[in-house]
Amino acid sequence: MRLQSMSPAVDSQLYPGNIIVSFEFDQPIWLSDKSKITVNGTSTISVAAVGSKVLVNVDARAGQSYRVMLAKESLQTLGGMVSSEDYVLTFEVSAAMDKSPEAVNLMNFMEENFGKKMISGVMANDSWNINGAIWVYQQTGKWPAMNGFDYMHLPNSAPGSWIDYSDIAVVQEWWNNNGLVTGMWHWEVPLYEGSSDYNSNPDKTNFDITKAVTPGTYEYGVVMADMNKVADYLLLLKQANIPVLWRPLHEAAGGWFWWGAKDAESCKTLWRMMFDLFKEKGLNNLIWVWTYEPVGGNDWYPGDAYVDAVGRDNYKTYTESIFVDEYELMKRLYPTKLIALSECGSVSDIGAQWNAGALWSWFMTWYDYDRTSDPSSAEFQKPDHMHADQSWWMQAFSHPDVISREDMPSLK
């Protein structure tokens, strides 16, 4: 028998919670002597042989080191060969995370796969649906692993209205089918004080972020009311035990949203205000994703204590080498964070990017409104797409390291 691979990576840094340690061999394996399978020197009953894999369940505690060993003579092959060497995997567990069990499971899953597998994702059409994911499935026979949802229409959300973020049925069904959930917020604010029209474009609203972080101002009242409202909607997902990759205030350094129209310090203050408020309200199901922009870049970073992962949004038809350069720069800037292609469209083949060295934790293609607005329409059946057409998705799913929803374990 020959050991093919181990997971998580040897000496990796993981988060507290339930961790599945996997040893994969080149042939089917049976347990010959369970007593010789140990965690930190103690025999464990939380072990199973499944095909060519041996799986050991470790209840990993904060701040601890772990050594999982399959000692010689613990395994046996179909031909009767008994293992003659020790197989050992070690890993560290970081300090306790203030996150829900499901969020911890999701973080561990992403950390274990970072650099080895890439999670596929697609954005909802406009706001609150899985239309894009349905389209991908109809075109390829596979589901993206992740679906993005947007709280963009917050001012209009109400029970019985055309948009109701309190109706989380579509998100629950996606999660119950082992799909991952990412949430964002194209945060629309009044065009001016007293206006009933809303927008996020700084050319269409005079909303001032420097005042939004100053108590006592009109703008401060708006952002606090909006953040409390979004928090209440996110609490519905927490109560349903759904973890969310939460990506607010995205693309700030680009300057095309009101939160990035003035200065980096105010934007960072607003991020931290949101982080602290959501923590106070008990939102421990969030994994905080900050979006990097090359212009201004790190000046807008809220700080390691407020960020779990860093994303890059890209709609340029770059060659793979440029994507690799961007990925490697982000890895150098944020060496302890997951790095993702958090939005993309019209980009080079994702498998080619991966093969060249752009090892994104996940990617999420943007929606084509006209193509996917109505799943019952003839337009919905067409294979072309303004950001990622059928052939792009077929190439993506043909890559062995791209994770579809069919590949996802339950993280509940």
Report on the structure:
The protein has helices spanning 101-113, 131-140, 169-176, 209-212, 218-239, 264-280, 320-333, 350-356, 369-372, 390-398; strands spanning 3-7, 12-14, 17-25, 29-31, 37-39, 42-43, 47-50, 53-60, 65-70, 75-77, 87-93, 118-119, 121-123, 146-150, 180-184, 189-190, 198-199, 244-247, 286-292, 309-314, 338-344, 363-365, 402-403. With 412 residues, it is of the alpha/beta class. An 8-stranded parallel sheet has the order 13-14-15-18-19-20-21-22. Strand 20 (309-314), helix 7 and strand 21 (338-344) form a beta-alpha-beta unit.
The largest pleated sheet is described as: 8 strands, parallel
User: How large a portion of the residues is in β-strands, by DSSP E?
Assistant: 15-25%
Name of the CATH first level of the largest domain = Alpha Beta
Number of helices: 10
Computed CA radius of gyration, to the nearest angstrom:
23 Å
- Give the oligomeric state of the chains in this entry, treating copies of one chain as homo and distinct chains as hetero: single chain
Indicate the CATH architecture of the largest domain.
Alpha-Beta Barrel
Total tally of structural domains = 2
**What is the CATH superfamily of the largest domain?**
Glycosidases
For this structure, the CATH topology of the largest domain is TIM Barrel
Strand ordering within the main sheet: 13-14-15-18-19-20-21-22
Shape: globular
SS-derived structural category? alpha/beta
- Number of beta strands: 23
- Overall pLDDT confidence: 94
